[in-house]
Write a structure and sequence with these properties.
This protein is α/β, with parallel strands linked by helices. It has a single domain, classed as Rossmann fold (3-Layer(aba) Sandwich), CATH 3.40.50. It contains nine helices and six strands, in the order βααααβαβαβαβαβα.
């Protein structure tokens, strides 16, 4: 893997995964079901300075946002495993153009929004197209959850020969031990930095 210090920041994107009102805001779908976590709630404020710094260098901010497509009668099309895991998800949750689907205020608006229906931000989305069209060659990645959408996206980027930096404290899971284990397992496919280290790198 190349040293991020050699990257052209104007050809670098910052990608956040699922930092949406329905996941994070107390009035969102997860908040109403008392499914929040302090580590997750802290992420937008930690990542926002990086977005500003990267934009100042000509970089691009992408927000990948989990989407539940309304099916017959408006009921969301939910994968069976997710319905079992999160039975509280209901009509209107994570629906495109809804408040819950929207990126949290601290980070809104992104330069580009990518709707996703599964874990990875690359799976059946326009992310790779946008990167190529914009000349974005590298990604800095944070968001939720570390072992789900973040890990899947980083592994998919690796398979596409897209080099990445994973923000170790710019992503979180519902359990700290799961988060830590995932950081260890991803060490061979991505660079890893704290948000403070990444900010120093971007602004230097």
């Amino acid at each position: 893997m190349s040293d991020p210090a050699t990257w052209d920041l104007s050809k670098t994107g910052l990608l956040t995964i699922d930092l949406q009102n329905d996941f994070i805001h107390p009035d969102g779908a997860y908040g109403r079901a008392d499914q929040g976590a302090a580590a997750i709630a802290a992420l937008p404020d930690r990542i926002a300075p990086l977005v500003q710094a990267l934009r100042a260098k000509g970089g691009t901010y992408f927000s990948a946002q989990f989407t539940l497509v309304p099916g017959p009668g408006g009921e969301p099309l939910i994968a069976p495993h997710l319905k079992t895991l999160r039975p509280f998800l209901a009509k209107g949750d994570f629906a495109t153009n809804s408040w819950g689907h929207t990126l949290v205020d601290t980070l809104h608006p992104a330069d580009y929004v990518v709707e996703k229906v599964a874990y990875s931000a690359f799976y059946q989305t326009r992310l790779e197209y946008l990167m190529r069209a914009l000349g974005v060659e590298h990604l800095i990645v944070g968001g939720i959850v570390t072992n789900g959408g973040v890990a899947s996206t980083l592994r998919d980027a690796h398979l596409r020969n897209i080099e990445t930096v994973m923000l170790t404290d710019g992503c979180a899971a519902f359990r700290d031990d799961v988060h830590d284990a995932t950081l260890l397992s991803l060490g061979t496919v991505t660079h890893q930095m704290t948000c403070a280290e990444a900010l120093e790198w971007i602004t230097s």
